[in-house]
Amino acid sequence: LTLVSELRHAIDNNKLALYLQPKLSLKSRQIVGYEALIRWPDREQPVTPDQLIALAEQSGLIKPLTRWVLQEALHLRSRLLELGFDAGIAVNISPNNLREPDFAVFVQRLMQSFHAHMGAITFEVTETSMMQDPVNSLKALNALNAAGIPLSIDDFGSGYSSLSYIKQLPASEIKIDRSLITELSHREEDRVIVRTTIDMCHSLGYTVVAEGVEDEETLALLEDMGCDLIQGYILTRPLPFDGLVDWMSGQP
Ligand code: G
Ligand code: G
Ligand code: NA
Ligand code: MN
């Protein structure tokens, strides 16, 4: 059995898992959302999420994979709502998904079937991936935004940032790449870049998220810089659903 056929089987038979990592508001100190991250559990030969996504993109399985991810994300969101945890889930989207002619229609129908309102699902896309096909990506993201999907720009500051392009996107949130965050407390240059990025993004009307926050010192610096939301191991690693519910139950 090839790895591709195993992946196809895993998608069709619900063998993949979505882990969730919370996002904390530095103002309200509440969990205001979760990022969904794919996992392939119970394998003798572990496959990392990066390998899994690369394999799905090469083999054409990214289309059924993303559809499974979206359905599962909406399912997990309903289960969280039932438990009293009301927050949207962010899903990572590949540029290839935006090339599917029926993607926006699929997403709209799925949202309707779950009675999901605007913001139940957010899409995260990287600036670098958009640049492969900027015109069509913009069209697709506008259609999705009209269908109730807010957009977040992932890994901001890690690639070739083209703000002149990004400002045309229907994005409401910018996530500063973790390479600029992990050593924030040791590197003056990173503090200059992050502080300036936060100010600029605020002036442009974006909510700013810092990802990869691992310690209290970094959290305090980001709070001082006016960063809106944080994500990272300081809160928790991405957790399977039951683990997340336990973790949430321990939050103030
Ligand atoms: O969980 P981890 O940090 O190892 O994820 C590795 C990479 O895989 C990240 O860049 C993340 O954006 C990507 N990734 C995780 N889950 C998904 C998914 O459901 N779809 C896509 N397209 N990428 C994902
Ligand atoms: O590319 P994207 O930003 O979607 O990648 C998210 C990845 O970052 C996931 O693989 C997740 O496991 C990882 N991650 C989340 N929080 C932290 C953190 O605090 N430190 C590090 N090193 N990685 C993190
Ligand atoms: Na992401
Ligand atoms: Mn990221």
From TrEMBL:
UniProt protein name: Diguanylate cyclase
Source organism, top-level taxon: Bacteria
Domain EAL: start-end pairs: 1-252
